[in-house]
């Protein structure tokens, strides 16, 4: 008989080992998936994890790791604060979209003016847009007790419809020959977010992600807010006795995560993406949930997990072009990582005991 026995204290060893074990199991079962699709599983795994770093074209792919990892890390750091407090913002993808729309709208409102102030205003607008979009589930939860999980998730689809509307309407490029989508912000210098150093992949979004990681670490380890977040997540009743306001914490955590997701959207639309098109949403807001949990909701872990997921993005694109793997298989491969991580998350808190059943 197999049973779970609760540990007296959570195992730090298993807490560190389970993400690595989840990666290994994802490789094994992902390889089986690729084999069922008629592809060489060893070659597929090698292409995803090895080629972006050590192949002949690695000089091109390595800078792309920063480009792909930056929005994931930026969004995941904001989500980690709420997740630690038991506040589940599942709608970061919607906040990412709204932030991109607000940032692009500011830039296009000033077009074709030249001015150093345009990009800072885009930053402010994107952060404010993501913040206000996150305030919808925050207010509904604090006022009416609704589930922030359902509300934030449903708002992703609302944001997607708004994206389609602005791409076909208010922000449509008048010189785009009728095709939906905004002007290319990379070709509008005051609103562009190019590489700061050629060949490195580092742009302002990467800098913002680094600052967010440092700020999150300071909050969690050196600030009273971090103490309140940890207490609220571990012992909600004890947090109330300690003077922690649950409603205020909901607003704060959702607001921070929404603002950072909005910034990620703005840095993407003004940089790697360039245009605000109907297919701008790439799923970064959902993938960041995997990054947050794979990194154990710790800032340093989130950085490592962000680069790992960025590696699967780039390696997956290589596998699609060279091996003919479908994009859906790569998405399933990434999803496996989250499921294995959640399944193994029981091990830090419980021991698995195998014993004979007695009469």
TrEMBL record:
Top-rank taxon: Bacteria
Gene Ontology cellular component list: plasma membrane
Localization terms from the record: Cell membrane
Transmembrane segments: 12-37, 65-83, 95-111, 117-140, 149-168, 202-220, 249-267, 287-311, 323-344
InterPro entries, A to Z: ABC_transp_permease (IPR001851)
Membrane topology of the entry: Multi-pass membrane protein
Major subcellular location class: membrane
Record PANTHER family: ABC TRANSPORTER, PERMEASE PROTEIN (PTHR47089), GUANOSINE ABC TRANSPORTER PERMEASE PROTEIN NUPP (PTHR47089:SF1)
Record keywords: Cell membrane, Membrane, Transmembrane, Transmembrane helix
GO molecular function, a single term: transmembrane transporter activity
Protein species of origin: Haematobacter genomosp. 1
Name of this protein: Sugar ABC transporter permease
